[in-house]
TrEMBL record:
Domain of life: Bacteria
InterPro entries attached to this UniProt entry: HrpJ-like, T3SS_TyeA, T3SS_TyeA-rel, TyeA_sf
Name of the protein in its database record: Uncharacterized protein
CC annotations in GO: outer membrane
Amino acid sequence: MIETGGVHFTQHPGPTKQLEGAKSPQGQPGKLQGEGLVATSNDASKFADAAEEMSFIAGQFKNKTSDKRKFKTGSGLSASILDRVKKIQTIQGVQGVKDLLNNFQTQKNLTNQQIRERLEEFSDDQVDQFMALDIAADYFERLGDKEKADQIREIRDDIRAENKSLIKAAVNVSEDAAGFPHLGEVRDIREAYDSNVQSYVRDDQSLEKLHHFLTENYGTEDVEEAIIMQLKLLSSEMASMDPSAPPEHLDAIVKDLSKLKQLVAIHDSCIETEEQLVRTYPETELNENVLMGQLLNLIQQQWVTEADFEKIPDKMNVQQLDAQIFTLTKVVAAVRMIPDEVFVNDDTKQAIISAAAEGLDSKIEQEAAEEVASPQDSDSIIGEIAVDLTSVKRPNDESEE
């Protein structure tokens, strides 16, 4: 059991959910699988509000067991955690650290305030400052300058006390980010993650923007793994927070968890549709990953027409009419399955379903018209051939004359 502020997270085995058709970089089917987190509240903490959103992670991803993290409940971080964090470079570039150490070494008798000023010049990120001071303390300890090492450790501990939840969360997030090296550098992933969470604080996030964030930063081919990573990072940060955390930041995490849940459902449906389409119409050279983007764009609109949906097969490079009808049938079904809260308002979902159904009906009517026209065309051709034949004189006819 993990006790964090006013909520207890208890682990239990969770189900496995397969994103059909999704492939890992190695070409193997990807999975979102996990261990569940069930929350029970013993006070009115904001963490209780997040319990329901946390529970869905059980079926979505495998989370590192939080109670195995080597954080002490007393003084703070263990040496083993700090060593691991140093190795994954959560701080600024190595040269920046060397410059800071050189500054501390060449300028004698620096006051605590002066050291703080040097840290501000080094980075405005408290996690960077904390980690740099930890390295600096070890450095001067090895040089035999125990006085300076102790001074730096004192400032380091002050920064940790001032930003306990933030530093703890950042270390956890950075450690998990290191598990996805092919998605980018740890620092870049952490900065992108922070920016994404802040977009919820600003309340300018949507499913389409979230999908764009994931594909822009990690590529369309790795979007499933990016979702897994994002879920892990959010869970790590949430498990690190305490009741003193800003409520708007906790709300942002809960919103991101909810959006990711919705995105996984739509992604699942789109992948399944594309797979079925290719199996049924193997001659189709499908533009992959188009359906997801098109669908996310339309469900964010307040007004759509049947023409908007009729364009989807063309953008997917589905040319055959019966294949287009197959695609739009799946699109209508996918829209019906999307949760109501995803749409702009209560009426939007029904309006979009109606527009999609009308687009599908138009294609069906087009197919019926073509089928009706085909026999007529055949009769016309036969009639023309018959007329031509009557105009041709047979040899026997000439002899009879």
